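Chapter summary example.
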Amino acid sequence: MAIYYLCWNDPKHPVGGVRVMYRHVDILNDAGIEAYIIHKRKGFRCTWFENCTPIVYWQDSTAERLWEKVRKRINPGSIQRMRVVGGSRREIGSRDILVIPEIYGPGIAHLGRGTKKIILNQNCHLTFRGYNFQSDSPQNAYGHPDVVGVLVNIRDTAEYLNYVFPSVRVEEFRLSIDKGLFHYERQKKSKSPFRSSKTSRMPSR
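The structure predicted for these 205 residues follows.
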């Protein structure tokens, strides 16, 4: 079994949620659990922070997509083959777990058919992004049988999802900071080159 965190947007600029995914993969591997980040563009790695996080790359082609459509029509219950390169195996299988951010909305249900999924919801305000509320029966990815649970980073999101989807298992994780970089200092030092060394005061009214 391996755990794969889907990160298709390949961000070149700092994105907090992506940094959290990288951190999760590092923690899992440190605990002896095989885990990877999935990027779409081969060779891509986030460079706006230091990391040596294990990464695999989505191996997709027009032929693969057409073949999957045929397989789905012939056998709707078949497991979607998700090919990747860079890891210890060439496919994500039914024994693996796919972690998908909430931003993919209803598309979560279509990714990796037959593979267990966990939704990583780091912003409850994006939970219904992409849904069509004009439909008589809008698709609910959170109720899909492949989804085994939801990971959230704050209590408010957990309470929100428990209210909207009472049957879905929601687990909360804690965010942490590096105390070596971010710590309390009694004497504050200005690091801005544009700020004067003299203390300025607002005029009294």
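To summarize the output: The longest helix spans residues 16-30.
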